[in-house]
User: Fold these one by one.
Assistant:
Number 1:
Amino acid sequence: MTTGTASRPKSPPERVRATAGAWLTTTDHKRIALLTIGTASFLFLVVGILALVIRAQLAVPDRHLVSNDMYNGLFTIHGSGMIYLVMTPIAIALGLYLVPLQVGAPNVAAPRVAMTGFWFYVVGALLIFGGFLTALGPATGGWYSYPPLADSRYTPGVGQSLWIAGVFIAVVGMMLQAGTVLWTTLLKRGRGVTMLRMPVFTWSSVATNLMVIGSFPALLAAMALLGVGRVFPQVFTDNQWNIGYQHLFWFFAHPVVYVMFFPFVGTVAEVLSTFSGRRFFGYRATVVSLLVFAGFSMSVWGHHMFSTEQSSNDYYSLTSILLLVPAGVEYFGFLATLVGGKLRFPAPMLFALAFIPQFLVGGLTGIMVATPVVDYQVTDSYFIVAHWHYTLAAGSLFGMFAAFYFWFPKATGLLLDERLGRWHFWLMVVGTNATFLPMFWLGLDGMPRRIATYLPGDGLSLPNLISSVGAAVLALGVFFWVINVVTSVRYRRRPAGDDPWGGLTLEWATSSPPAPTNFDDEHPLPPVRSFAPLLDEREREETAGENPEQHGTIGSRRS
Amino acid sequence: VSLQGIFSDVFRLEVTIAAVVFAIILVLLVVSLIRRRAGVTRRPSGRADNMPLEIGYAVALTGIAVFLVVVTANANHRESQIQEAARTAPDVARVDVTAYQWCWRFRHLDGPATADGTCTEDPSTRPVLVVPVGRPVELRLTSNDVVHAFWIPDLAVKSDVYPDHTNSLSMTFDHPGQWLGRCSEYCGTHHPTMDFYVRAVPEQQYQQYLASGGAAA
């Protein structure tokens, strides 16, 4: 567990490194990432429980478990919590953990900046949840908090102000972390790791962090504008500022959807190729498509504003529909990898496989809502709620769990339980689809989003009941996940070893968990000749065993 | 052609395309899961690229995207033309629609009629927007306070309603009837009950409604 050699600085002994103080002041990118992901996972459970209260209220018509204002607070904190405090931090921190390992770097660039980012994130989360302790309750503006509703005339109360400050600070934290990871990828790569030998996951992180740097400042401007409206609400009597806020907000808020998506595309690519036993098919096309996708993502924001009648609908429709090209190229890579693979099906593979058809539902309905004449009807209805839950919950969340099951052994040295993992997986599949599929029909039947209740005569009762039952099943699945993590860590029965899956990328060449410097004398950085260096090594050894005369040629054929 | 007709034509086309794409991908996925599972397959493929295939595929995707863009832009232009034609027709009936927290007011410009109401869970007190059948109607939408949205789900008609700004929504009601209208942009505490009715009546009845100052409909 230590690097007892003279050639490297000695890290402190394990008993010092294990204290809370050592964790909270760490400069090790892996620990900073685990703190961020751990906090976000805890908040995922909290914010998920808010959604269960929402589904309990909507399970039957005309039910008033909570007041309208509390309901509005619940969906606001559910939505904004999942986006700002759960999926975005996990998406960025997954890169913070993995990218230095995958590019053979001993640490992230500027680790103290990354750690500052974590603390900003914690402060932001505390401010947002602090709203529950105020007299008028939490923020009620929704995750996009449009003015004038979110100004101090129409939403008095400290909760909304705390929310604006909290979102601002948490997002600054995420920008800091994203910046350090991008810097590491561009300038801190290990020997032999050229740009086109970086794994697909690392490339997905590059595209993600470019979008963070390019688009998150617009959110800071939007939150600052909203902050002005808390003090001088008369600003928002002028249409220019209301519509201007929407443009600023969506300039951030469309790219952030892909920030919460790309790292999981990268994850799914890694998991599929590992459990197919082969290189990811179409690597270069996928890299190009990720970068094109990231570029286009900055030009589609107006499609959130088709029904405002104050946006260039033809233009935003054009750019939005063109996104199907890079998305289709990524799907091609997924399927082509499987078509030529030798497949194994442990828990991470199951989550990655379910991601493919489930995210596809979100993508295909995305084309519908990118069509103005369709969007006029379905926007702000439950159709749109169904659409993005298919992208974020049925898609990204499944990718997140694939990542969790895949890299948990690397981060902890322990395997999770496969049987509990399967229960988790199948309950999630049933629960997710039962929750979100009926919402398409609810939207087409005229149910607006964000309504605290509906009437028996509205004809919305059955799909809502199915959806609520589905949410309970989904929650049960997540409960199995928690049990799995708790029992695996507590009983420590299943040591993972360095490489439990037959991995392809550099993180599997070091110990589990990796040494503080990632690679050391016991686990040196292997030679890197492609984006799947460990597979190159295995193939070379195999070939050397079969035909000794070819030794050395196979492993380097892709360099 | 009505706005609803354009919506359902394009929506049906896109649902069909989506269903075909979903089916193809699902079949590919399931077949490869069965045929390439570890017990059956001896070795994974060593091939990592097939550039002509990948480029050809990307070109085909671009073709599909261009097709969809053309269909979409066409439909949107038809919709704008319908609205423009209705708006500029000489016999257009105009109504000022005002949204406020949390209800609607409909002021007819052709006569001294204004419809008001209270938006609660009781349907009988909801405001009613009365419109004539068979000639264009222009609704001029504005808000007194926050952003709302005017939505008639069964007719596929929706527009956001802003303070300090007027959006125009124009259409022709082909046949008499009554439809539920709702606010679809979240607007605060009583957003869920901000409902109204749209009632299309024959011309003569509409004139009576206007003359009575909004009493009889």
Number 2:
Amino acid sequence: MREAAVDASGAVNLDQPTDSLAGFANALKTLGDRRQRVRISGTGGWCPLDDASASVLSTAGMARIIDIRPADLVATVEAGVTLPALEAALAPHGVWFPVDPPGVSRTIGSILASGTSGPLRGGMGSARDHVLGLTFVTGSGRVVHAGGRVVKNVAGFDLTRLVVGSFGAFGAIHSAHLRLRARPRRDVTLNATGTRDEMLRGALAIKDTGLNPAALEVYQPPGSDTWGLAIRLMGSEPAVKADEEACRSSSGLSLVSETPPAATWPRIAEQMVAGPVTLRMGAALKNVDALLGTIDAELPGGRLTLTCGAPAIRWCGAADTDRLQRFRARMADTGLPVTLERAPHPILVQVGHFGEYRDGVAGIVRRIRDGFDPDRILAVPLYGD
Amino acid sequence: VTVSQQALEAIEGIVGRRWVRRAHAELETFASDGLPTRHSKPAAVVLPGDRQEVIDVVRVLAHHGVPFVARGAGTGLSGGALADPESVNVALTRLSRILTIDPVERRAVVEPGVVNVRLSQAAAVHGLFYAPDPSSQTACTIGGNIAENAGGPHCFKYGVTSNHVTALEIVLPDGEVVTLGSESGEPWGPDLVGAFVGSEGMFGIAVRITVRLLPVAPCVLTLLADFTSLRRAGEAVSAIVESGLIPAALEMIDKNCIQAVESSIYAAGYPTDAAAVLLVELDGRTEGPLGEEAGAIEQMLIDHGARSVRTATEAAERARLWQGRKKAFGALGRISPDLVVQDAVVPRSVLPDILEEIAAIAETYRLTVSNVFHAGDGNLHPNLNFDRSNPEELERVERASGEIMAACVRAGGTITGEHGVGIDKLRYMTSIFDRDTLTAMRTLRHAFDPAGISNPGKVVPVHSCREWWAARGANMPAGTAGRAGTGRGPAAEAPGGAEAWGA
């Protein structure tokens, strides 16, 4: 095993990705000792690596699937493993990882750091619900083993949930114990297209029946002015069949089943990185129509997708700093947090992944960072400048 | 009593004299929780009547540097709500209002003192329920559930407390009020709701809690399968979990526990000659498909050696089957003066092995062990009957508990799945977490409670960090030498933050 990016002379060779935990920790510690800010990168396909002031430490050398235990529904993987690689490794065991983030070939490290999940979030929970434990390296080079690899665990404070979705501000993820699901016996995707109003009414009618589809997504198909409703049903043959009938009768829509593997879901994921900026936000179903109207008006020209089960909205397009800040402030007034998932560095650094709209929260976060990364080695603009 | 008269008088001024308990006999009620091996009287107990009184009381306590311990119904099983004579218990049982139930967004906002089962009862008119259902749900409070990240039988399908809380209004230990999370679940920063849930009262007091509600499944079936071999029952659990069918609950009750239940008023009709029974509950929207799933599971149970499988469809019949499970601890409590309800988790594939190992440990220490637990999650509850007035037997219980924990950790598991660390399990924390990880936990605690006055001395042991400091030749922070294991004042804790990581 190579001992990482720090060579005998103490030089940090960032072109030679480290392949060990010790090397990863050592690289961070060495960079930290030199007060050299660093960004952690996976495949580089999610957020642009355009912060000239920070070095880039890649997880590409840490891409092993360490363990798959189908009987326990747990897999242990390194941060650099991509989602397609994980899916391919899990498939023969009849298990899967029910997280479908925006983007293409994201790494597990990237998915967990950004706490991001797609349409499946509505029916199966967000990324943080599928992580049992994490090993991460703090900004000061300390190795922390949070959580464990069992499905219930309340030993100590929940550092796992703290780190998932913190964009790497508290530490760089090295590996994770993931909670898997057994492959459902049947996995069906139903599609409809029409006006936004028709799709929304159909989705809410399905929800009102008490049905909880794995995904229930109202979205804008690429290159089209119409709207789409995509429904994913999973379970036993008879249960899925009954749910399918319930969807048809309650929505009143003409639902077409898609031949598996359904192309709708990867298409939605790709579309959410088609523009330079991606954001996610909470939603309320009561006034969702007005909310979508506001997004259209405030952030014109983008594409959005509504995860009805969560409920949550993801938007992708082009927008400048002022527009994003104005939009976030307006949403905060209605109690909806807006999280900037990805953007070019000049925008991200000013707008921040999160907005400071609740008194006291940023203070707690700052104190946590003071403990985990006192010198702010990890170049993560959690809150804007 | 070391809590100043001035502080107590200020608190009386806020809540009124009748809501401050100071007499020894009154304090006795608060000297224990569900853990029979520990006992500790607080200096005083304060019962605030509303959110503002909680805030004002915490501010007085913070001003005077008085440590405090929030307490719900006192049903906790790890000693987490016990306060020492230098601390004040803040009992939240009077904050018992369900503030809103929103059937469209499927959310409820409640005060911390709401009894768990009341929320589901109140939501039922909207066809909704609150999923986490600890066995103590008729007594325990949502606030306590937040502190412990409580589970329950139906968490197998629906997840634990942490999966159902979207927002919290908390009073930080310095009296500042902060809102974490939002109704939809998207946070205002990193997931501080996730960090707060399960922090065992060490990050402050939640005064308003927003939770998800789920639609009640109209069709429910409960299967009871009985096995002549504990091992075969464990194997059946793995087979069901791997099949991709997801029961709402998957519980196991072993022979000793069956016999205790069947000879009590909670008799559920379990076969008394079985080595174990499995209780499998399925829920869904439509009867036909559910019946087909039940048929498939029944076949799996029989294939794995079930002697018989009974299916209960009527509510009364199902309730009777569940009564044996839910009241098992009560039935076991009749056998001896005291009962330790242990809690640990193992990967479910090792369930058969670990149950044999636990039986061997109990035999070594001449104790009766009964298992009743969440088999689908691998969450064990080995229960040890004993008499605390017999110190020699108590010693054997403590040692057997330690060995059971060690066995579960060796099997790749953890020391608690839903009861928390509290005081009881502090000593095992170093068996699963290294020093840097424990220091990370203390750093997180420090961010919420720099003064270390909210439930000090629980969850994260200080001695490991002290050894770490000594080993590194660094100067130990003042007061690190805490009085471990009894619930202590803030001086027991080293400061967290950057300094605690050492040089």
Number 3:
Amino acid sequence: MPESTSSPKPAAPDFLPTLLQTQIQRLARFSDEETFEDGIETELSRGVSYLLERYATPAVQAISDLYLAGLLNPVILSEILPWLGRTQQSDTMDRDSRFWLLVYCLRDPHPFVRSGAALGLAALDDPRAVPYLLREAQTERIPLLRERLINVAEELSL
Amino acid sequence: VTLLLRKVQHKRWYAATTTLDNPLPADPLADLNTKDNALSLWEIFDDRSNLTQVVTAMAATMQYVSNVDIVLFDKRLVSRLGLQIDMTQGRTPYAPAVAYHRDIVRLTAQALLNLAETLRREGDFVEFTEKQVARLLAQAIASGLRTDELTDKVVKHLSDKGLL
């Protein structure tokens, strides 16, 4: 076998996921008193967008792990999710991990999380989300949120 | 019917607009913050022909490109509630919309509650998606809005999306 001439991509250190989780939890804790307004930056939005752009998939994994462990409150999570779509994705794997986390969050019991997931999918601009958005819209009981799901689905279908 | 527009976050109104029989939840009040007892609004023509101009005006003040959630309501509701509207200059770099800005003035806490109650029952909640907002900003730039009036993040977003 000939040796590969391209240098292998360095593996992420083992402690990176834990480190990123700690960073995200710290941002979330400091954001408890922040007021969130669309289009206005906060410490949370600045911090999360930095981590997502700098670390990509491991940062998405950290958010995912914290979410599945129930360690992010719904208000904070709903502010984080749109940034999964808004920030630059490093590669297909990174994009896919964001996509599936957002799709998963469309079924969260808390409406703020479902709303944030819809905004994240809109920003990610991936038409694969359309059937998932429409499926959730069928059972969504909050009219304003149902409208959001349909709006995003229609836009991604164009 | 002339309309008034207030920028809100729809999620704050989810509970309030879903079950109208329940008492008004507190979250909507976060969308009705006042300064010097005045509430900032925009006036929209009955045919809504200046709606996108006003949304552009609000978007031009944002630090990053985001969806814009609004609620529209009949201007007559304000007089019905015994409130007064003043014409004031809008703070936005998008000049064509500056003249549409209004303030409801001399508000009391009770009047604000009445307004929130009215909005949840009679308001028309409309969303402009992030993509629509980006397009509106790009059109505004094409027709004269200077990019140095926007944040670097907004300009980069539009550029990355191929809109500049």
